[in-house]
Amino acid sequence: MHPIFARKGRLGPYLAACAPLAAVLMALLARPGALSLEEAAAVSVPMTLLYGFLGLSAWYPARGLPLAGDRLAFLIVTHGVAAVFTSAVWVFAGAGLVRLIALAPGFALLPGRYAGEVPVLFSAGLLLYLLSVALHYVLLAFEAIREAERREAALEILARKAELEALKAQIHPHFLFNSLNSISALVGSDPAKAREMCIGLADFLRQSLSVGERAAIPLSEEIALATSYLDVERARFGRRLAVETDVTPEGGACVVPPLLLQPLVENAVVHGIATLEAGGTVRMQAERTGRRLRIVIENPYDPEAPPKRRGGLGLKIVRDRLSALYGGEALFAARRLDGRHLAILSIPIRADV
Amino acid sequence: MSEDVRVLIVDDEEPARLLLREILGAQPGVTIVAEADNGFEAVRAASEHQPDVAFLDIEMPKLNGFEVAELLAPEVAVVFVTAYNQWALKAFEIHAADYVLKPYRAERLREALSRARARRVSGGAVPNPGAVSRSARPPGRFAERIVVRDGPKVHVIPVDKVDCLEAQDDYVAVRSDGRKFLKLQTLAALAESLDPARFLRVHRSFVVNLDRLRSIELYAKNSHVALLADGSRIPISREGHGKLKALLEGK
Questions:
Q1: Cα separation, B78 vs B81, whole angstroms
Q2: Which of B22, B101, B144 has its CB closest to that of A188?
């Protein structure tokens, strides 16, 4: 639908804006040797009004053929044909109108004089069409700008939300409760181990707080943070949890958003290792290939594990964050393969995030 | 002093078991009969040692704490010990004796123990297996598996492997892969936990998995039987036939 009709209250101002055009047309028709002043007035007002509506049709070719396109010749031809057609329709409709006006007393000579003015009116119609096309392109450009702004604002909100979720999820309260329970258990039987676990937990909390304040950190720091998280979990799970890290120096130097891997590493423990009696190994692997950084978090899991109450939230956080920060440039996939779960990320390398 | 109470400890984390053992073991009149680090082991230990009270973690390998509770003898008083608070309501729905949040004080655990003891002395409310199996699955979802105890062994049957369910006195016979598993529960309670788009009660004593239904045969005048994929036949009541017809024509 044409934007003039799309919203109420736009048509009135638009028609009012046509009034000066009616005056110009009247002056043109009332020039010496053409129509009389009364005749020019009687013809120009309704015909301008008519053009006001006909000109709106330029919106459709204008919308379909953006100026930015490389089909300039096609664009000129299309608008040329549309201009000729619109103008012809206008002049023809004018002829009918004139015949009606001629019925009124004092306008008997009008049809003859109008016929003499057809070339002038046809040219005026072409010019009006050009004016209309130009106005429509301006209108479309404004709309495109507003649309872009709106999209940018939506993206901004999405990015903020994803950041907030990620920060909120950085430390799952149950992780804290379970760790504190382990400390409470060890205090009696193995005070040295209890102390070690307190320090490990403090290290992880301190690191995650300081990291969370920054916009981007080297991957090596993110891996160190994940490792200190896994160290705390190892005190709970004992021999059930093993960790392997394989990060190339070039990969470790790439920057990533802080705590990007945290939900994935937590999933690897909660939905992987914790479901297996014998436990298993969480593998974190990263390498740089050209302009991209590839990270894989891998863990075994029990395909027949009992139903869990939560799940998928960690993956959603990572996905939302990546799309907010990198748009379509980041890839993220979660795969299940022979009892192993793989979270695979590929992100473009940038100086910051 | 009350008589000795036999306690089973179930948690997949070694330090967590240690703490339970330390506090409960120091209580007079308490015997820790077994410890288990996963759900299967818990059911096995329970059938071997006949505990009076079970302290259960919830998120564990193999079976979760609710599934274990579902398979314990109804006389066993259950105390859940977990870091998650979102299951407290469910726990009381199934008449758990108590629900203790980790980390806890020794006092809190002793209180849970005396509640469980009181339950045992007074006879207390016995868990209702229907309610227990409802709580074993995430809210708003249908059961994806049925757990059945066979002496010390546990069978986990995914619902898509189930052919049909048959009421047998106080039990439900779950037919799957040519085998029959007996579960202490009413047919109505078990059927309620299943997706009604996949499982239909076609008779007072039968619920059929619609994916396993091959055809409906006329058995006698106004009487039908269902032929299942495994070649077995089960009776269909007049009401059941009406429901089946409506469902098949609706598709």
A1: 10
A2: B22
Mean pLDDT of A79-103: 89
- pLDDT of B1 strictly over 60: no
pLDDT of residue A4 exceeding 80: no
Residue A186 sits at the chain B interface (C-beta within 8 Å): yes
- Which domains, and CATH codes, for chain A? 3-161 (no CATH), 170-348 (3.30.565.10)
List the domain boundaries for chain B.
Answer: 5-133, 142-250
State the Cα–Cα distance between residues B93 and B91, nearest whole angstrom: 5
**Cross-chain Cβ contact A275/B61 below 8 Å:** yes
pTM, 2 dp: 0.69
Task: Say if A274 is an interface residue toward chain B (CB within 8 Å).
Answer: yes
Assembly ipTM: 0.79
For the CA atoms of B103, B105, B107, B113, the dihedral, rounded to the nearest 10 degrees, stands at 20
The per-residue pLDDT for B116 is: 94
Q: Say yes or no: domain B142-250 is CATH 3.40.30.10.
A: no
Interface of A with B in 197-256 (CB under 8 A): 235-238
| Interval B17-58: pLDDT, tens | 999 999 999 999 999 999 999 999 999 999 999 999 999 999
How many alpha carbons fall within 13 Å on the CB side of residue B9?
22
Contacts of A104 (CB under 8 A, 6+ apart): none
Instruction: Transcribe B113-165 into DSSP letters.
Output: HHHHHHHHHH--PPPPHHHHHHHTS-TTS--SEEEEEETTEEEEEEGGGEEEE
Q: Which fold has domain B5-133?
A: Rossmann fold (3.40.50)
Q: State both tokens at A210.
A: 């300081």
Structure tokens at B85: 């608070």
Residue A90 token pair? 């206008």
Tell me the pLDDT tens digit for each residue of B108-161.
999 999 999 988 776 655 666 566 666 666 666 788 899 999 888 899 999 999
Read off the pLDDT of residues A189-224 as tens digits, 9 standing for 90 and up.
Answer: 899 999 999 999 999 999 888 887 788 899 999 999
Q: How far is CA B1 from the centre of its chain?
A: 34
From A159's Cα to the closest Cα of chain B, the distance in A is 29
Are B5-133 and B142-250 the same fold in CATH?
A: no
Tokens representing B22 are 């330390």
**A313 CB near a chain B CB, below 8 Å?**
no
As a whole number of angstroms, the distance between CA A183 and CA B19 comes to 10
Distance from the Cα of A76 to chain B's closest Cα (Å) equals 56
pLDDT exceeds cutoff 90 at A300: yes
| Chain A residues within 8 A of B19 when measuring between CB atoms | 181, 184-185, 188
Name the closest residue on chain A to residue B136, using Cα atoms. Answer: A307
A307 vs B: CB within 8 A: yes
Kindly state the helix (H) or strand (E) to which residue A293 belongs, with its residue range.
Answer: strand A292-300
The alpha-carbon gap from A51 to the nearest alpha carbon of chain B, in Å, equals: 57
